[in-house]
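Q: Sequence in, structure out?
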Amino acid sequence: MDTVIESIAGLGHFALYFGISIALLFAFKILYAFVTPHDEWKLVKEDQNTAAAIGFGGALVGFCIALSGAISNSESVIDFIVWGVIAIIAQLFAFGLLRFTFMPKIVERIVNQEVSAGIMLAAVSIGVGLLNAASMTY
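A: Exactly. Output:
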């Protein structure tokens, strides 16, 4: 019984960090939808646009990777929140970088259901998430 009690001793910290993570994920979803000129939810839910689902899914995964790096390396809850916000900014920057430099027609291509554009967006988002998480070590 002592082993079980010891195992769940950190449950409060888990709940706190997990709850904040869900809130940051929700904030990321809202900000990402605000920054992108196309409506991901409509494209995915109503239009069943595979390219949008792949791109948006990759953005969420990339952000979660960065957020996991923030959790692993933070020294306090405030530190985690600060780095979580930085992760949001980095992921939004990744979309802007892709949209305004490498693939200026990415929005149009995703709306037109070009899966290759969705895959590139997902790859960039996940790649930036990995770099973001790795950069949070100190």
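The chain has one domain: 2-135.
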